[in-house]
Amino acid sequence: MKLNTELSDVKTLDHVGSKPSTKPQMKRARASNQKIPKWAYLLFIILAAVVTYRILQHRAGEVKAAQPAARPASVAKVIAKDVPLYLDEIGTCAAYETVQVQAQVSGQIIARDFQDGSDVKKGDPLFTIDPRPYQATLDQAKAQAALDQVTLKRQQDLVARKVISKQDYDIAVANAQKSQAAAEAAQVNLDYCYIKSPINGRVGLRNFDVGNLVGPLTPPLVTIQGLDPIYTDFTVAENDLPLVRKYLGGPNVKVQTYLADGSIAPRTGDLYFIDNAVQPGSGTVKARGVTPNPDRALWPSEFVLVRFILDMLNNAALVPSQAVQVSQSGPFVFVVKADNTVDFRPVKPGQRQDGDLTVIDSGVKPGETVVVTGQLALSPGARIAPQPYATQPPGNPQPSAASKSAM
Known about the structure:
With about 400 residues, the protein is of the alpha+beta class.
C-alpha cells in the first residue's frame, strides 16, 4: 500500500510538472512557423513560372501540331508583255514565180550552160540553139534592107526633079520599111537561139539534152522557180472570218511561217492575198502570205505551220500555263499572299503564247504571284513553302485548237 501510494504520487508529480515544460515548446514552434524566409517565396515564384511556361509551351506545341504543315509548291510572278493575237493554221509553200522555159525557134540544141537544180540569175544563159540558119537569114535581111534604103534615096532625088511618079516613090518607101522590119525579125529569131533565164530562181530537171531538136511545139526545156521570197498558202475557217475582218488591213497583220520540226526559226512575212468567197464544202477561205526565204530553206509544195497574226496585245498579263486550273465554277489560279497562304482567284484565260505562257484577260495583275505546280494539295487559306518555278524557254509556236477557241 505504501509502495503504491508513492508510485502514484510520483506519476502525479510528473504529470503536473510536465505542463509547464510543454507550453514554451509549442510557442517556439508557432514562432518558427510564422518566420518563413524570403528565399522560399522567391523559389516558389520561380517554380510556378517554370511550371506555367512548360504548360503554355506544351499547349502551343499541341496547337502547332494540329495545324497542317506547309505544302511545297512552285510559284511564279505574273508578267506583263506584248504578245500577238493570232490564228494557227496549216499551209503549204508555193514558188513566188514559176517559168517554163520554152524554145521559141526551131533548131538543134548545141549547148547547155547550167547544172540541174542550180540557182540562176536573170539573164544567165541556159541553152543555145544552132544560130547559123538564123544568122544567115539576118544577114540576108540586112542586105536587102540596105539595098532598099539606097533605092529609096535615089527615088527621093528623082521625085524631087519630077522624073518619076509619086506612086513609084511610095513603093520605094514601103519596100525600105518592109526590109527593115524583116531584118529586125531576123535579129529577134537569132536572139531566141540564145535562151536565157528570165527570172532569179532555181532550175529544175532539164527535159532535153544537147543534140535534141526543139521548137515552139515541143515541151518546155526546163522549169525555173523563184524561191526568195516564197508564197505561204493557207486557209481560214469560216467561223474565224468575223475576227479576221475586224483586223484585216491593220498595221499588225502578219503571216509567220515555220516548220513543224523546229529546224528553222519562224519567218514573218506580209499578207499578200485573201479570197473573196468561202469555198463550198470545206467552209474555208484561201489566203496567201509572202515569206522571206534567203537561204532557200522553204521549198514549193512543202507542208508548213502558219501563224496568222491579227494584232498585238500590249502589256498582257501572262502566267505559266500550268498555273491555270479548272473547277466546276470555271478556270482559276491560286494567288500567293504575303504570309505564304493562297487565295482562290477565278480568272478568264486567253491565248496560249510561246514559252508555255497563257494570257490572263482578267483575274490577276502583273506582279502578283501564282502557284504553278502542287495545286491538288491546296485549298483556300492553305500555307505553302514556295519554290521558284523554272520557266521554259520560248520555242517554235505550235498550233492549238484550244488557243483558237479561247479567242
